[in-house]
Design brief:
The protein has 357 residues and is mainly alpha-helical. The relative contact order is 0.08. The protein folds into 3 domains: 48 residues; 83 residues; 141 residues, Orthogonal Bundle (hpI Integrase, Chain A), CATH 1.10.443. It contains 14 helices and 6 strands. It is elongated. The protein has a 3-stranded antiparallel β-sheet, with helices on one face. 47% of the residues lie in helices and 7% in strands. Helix 7 packs across helix 11, helix 8 packs antiparallel against helix 10 and helix 8 crosses helix 12. A hairpin with a 7-residue loop joins strand 2 and strand 3. The model has no long low-confidence stretch (mean pLDDT 85). Keywords: DNA integration, DNA recombination. This is Site-specific integrase. GO terms for molecular function: DNA binding. One of its GO terms (biological process) is DNA integration.
Length: 357
């Protein structure tokens, strides 16, 4: 039998003790609420379906996020970006809520708020992270929730497929802007990249269609310049693959210095992101100067809205002209499903016209 005690104004404590079960105690503002809760818990115990809600009722959402960051996220391939995103989500007021009080309407409001300032695909990823944190907590950490509240929230529909191609003039200006210049005696740099690895990363990406993560994981011990191959033991889809190197890619690798750590590109993804963005700005500025000097109208969109991942799209399109067989193309790019290549197999009308000639 439950014990209901008045512990002061608007404080009614319900306590339940049953042999074989942990003691349950909760405080309510009214006696009726305390009695209703006690009846519910006793009914669940009698039917053998009781699960303790203590942890869910005293744990804040940000505590689960912290634990996920320390225990789960480091095991994932995209750990760096996932942790950065979770750290940002932890600063949202929703993270201060007690886990047991979270509902699907809370996350629906979060979705609607974020859609006002972020794209749909970004919001989908954030909701997916929230769902993963709560799912791990439910299944492995003893946080009892009748259901995952994020699972019931509809995701925003958003088409993020891109078909951005890199024009030859854009490539020339970009590579020129990424040229490495050593530090001068006075401590300054010439107008160019301060990181010697950025330009060869971009060049190799355009030759091989390798993903950014695959480029950073590439080791010299897995590169055979004699056979013109590079082995990737760990890829985005979890399947290893050995990709062929074009003559230009093999020559590029021959000219690179060897690092003691064994990595082909001993730099970081964050350094690449910053250097690539700055290189784009320098390349466009130089292009506009040349147009003004030549008194010609600049091309609209020249080097605008270009992302590093667009280089994979461009490289795949170039490889498609040499490997019209989609099975062969998939073995190079690493796509598990051939149908996915339709997104990247984006030959222009001019290229098709040349084939028909």
């Amino acid at each position: 039998m439950a014990t209901i005690r008045n512990r002061g104004e608007y404080q009614w404590e319900a306590q339940i003790r049953r042999k074989g079960y942990p003691a349950q105690r909760k405080t309510f503002e009214t006696k009726a609420d305390a009695q209703a809760w006690a009846r519910m818990i006793e009914s669940e115990i009698d039917r053998g379906i009781f699960v303790s809600r203590v942890e869910a009722e005293r744990t804040a959402f940000y505590e689960l996020i912290d634990r996920y960051i320390s225990e789960v996220a480091p095991k994932h391939k995209g750990a760096y970006s996932e942790i950065k995103r979770l750290e940002a989500l932890k600063r949202h007021p929703l993270a201060t809520r007690i886990v047991a009080t979270l509902t699907s309407s809370d996350f629906a409001r979060y979705r609607d708020e974020r859609l006002k300032i972020r794209k749909g695909n970004t919001v989908k990823r954030e909701l997916a992270l929230f769902q993963c944190v709560l799912e791990v907590a439910r299944r492995e950490w003893g946080i009892h929730l009748a259901e995952n509240p994020v699972r019931m929230v509809s995701r925003p529909s958003y088409n993020d497929e891109r078909s951005r191609r890199l024009a030859p003039d854009e490539e020339d200006y970009l590579l020129a802007a990424l040229e490495y210049f050593e530090r001068r005696a006075d401590g300054t740099y010439a107008e160019g990249s301060h990181n010697p690895w950025i330009r060869p990363i971009v060049q190799l990406a355009l030759e091989t269609a390798m993903r950014r993560g695959e480029l950073f994981q590439l080791l010299w011990k897995h590169v055979s310049l004699d056979r013109r191959t590079a082995h990737l033991p760990s890829t985005k889809n979890g399947l290893p693959r050995t990709l062929p190197l074009t003559p230009k890619a093999a020559q590029l690798l021959r000219e690179l210095p060897r690092s003691l750590c064994g990595r082909v590109f001993p730099t970081t993804a964050d350094a690449l992101k910053k250097a690539f963005t700055r290189g784009l700005a320098r390349a466009r500025a130089r292009y506009l100067e040349d147009c003004e000097e030549a008194q010609v109208t600049p091309q609209e969109g020249f080097l605008l809205d270009l992302r590093f991942h667009d280089l994979r799209h461009e490289a795949t399109c170039r490889l498609a002209t040499k490997l019209p067989n989609l099975i062969e193309l998939a073995s190079v790019t690493g796509h598990r499903e051939v149908n996915m290549l339709k997104r990247y197999y984006n030959i222009t009308a001019e290229e098709l016209a040349a084939k028909l000639a």
